[in-house]
Specification:
single chain; 454 residues; alpha/beta; 3-stranded mixed sheet; 15 strands
Amino acid sequence: MSEEVREVNFDGLVGPTHNYAGLAHGNVASMRHGGLTANPREAALQGLDKMKSLMEAGYAQGVLPPQQRPDLGALRDLGFTGDDASVLARAAQEAPQLLRAVCSASSMWTANAATVTPSADASDGRVHFTAANLQSSFHRYLEPRTTARVLAAMFHDPAHFAHHPVLPATPAFSDEGAANHTRLCAGSGDNGHGEPGVHLFVYGRQAFGGQHGPTRYPARQTLEASQAIARQHGLSDAQTVFAQQNPDAIDAGVFHNDVIAVGNGPVLLYHDMAFRDEEATLEALRARMSTPLIPVRVPSEAVSLEDAVSTYLFNSQLLSNPDGSMTLVVPGECQENETVWRTIQDLLLAGYNPISEVLVKDVKQSMRNGGGPACLRLRVALSSAERQALGGRVLLDEALHGDLTAWVERHYRDRLAPEDLADPQLAQESLTALDELTQLLGIGAVYPFQLGGG
């Protein structure tokens, strides 16, 4: 395949209302830090720092804008009336959890934004997108319509990009996007992303079946949703593997597959509790891949599920280098945990797999809300022609990084407590910032307030 194909990591910009509301049931870090005071400015700058460092290391880096928050239109749909200040005040008094939900900055975790199939795998030679319905939690259910508009604005050329309808927002088709999807391919250096791939879809439960599922926390992805997306994107049985996540892992706080496994090229780095049937999953991948699978298995004896969840070892980015080696980008919490750090040194750098370097990044503001480096990015393999067809100014370079940093410093607060969410001035600050951002990125009107909505 073409040597011009590169994987672009589109990181989500952290929104101005970043706060710790503890909204995500089953996300241990989110629940543990609920009610703390957040620093939106620091969170956004930490994300931009990660993007910049990877760009400077030679990786292709893009950006995705945040959602419009607070979502006053959602509050009005739920019966809160009056001007903006009245809606916010009444929601704060009568339904504070709803107010927290409509202020959530959870769209920063763009691994949940959509599922993507690159043109190398599509029969029509286009890149395919399905925005995730995120129906399992109210604060994320609010995202898909804006996400779909943003993706359509950025990937707008129908000659290169295809956009599919969001799946029905019902429990049977619960879809959490690329956080439960891994594409494996030949991966000979960065150019390997242009080779045909195999798509591993991991689900937590089967809606129309009797498989055993988790009992403590909800399974957010269904088999039926994963199968529907594969059909939308035209993927054949020979290109897909559907594997059930280990229910015990979900009950331990592994709410998405990307909290327990990460793949890149032919490498699958995973915990031994990642899949309900580990051997069957590996055998199915081996049968479909055109190049040998390189499984990197971390046993429970080396890293417990508790440590895997608290450090987000597997919610790391695994990136291809031109020489065929790979770099693992881990959160600082991995380095602070002696057992996990020793495992990274002893197991991952042992020489029997392509992982040769580990980069440590500080994303504490995101980690406290339950998202590590892998949560913060949506992976999209693009040819040079597809990159040139992108709408707007969304591929990071020094100038864009500087403009975005200055934008954050102009508009973001350095302290945001839950009680601040009712401040009408915060809502106005957010709209002003987002209006300026769409102009800075050149993506046009994508937010409800820009389109005549609330």
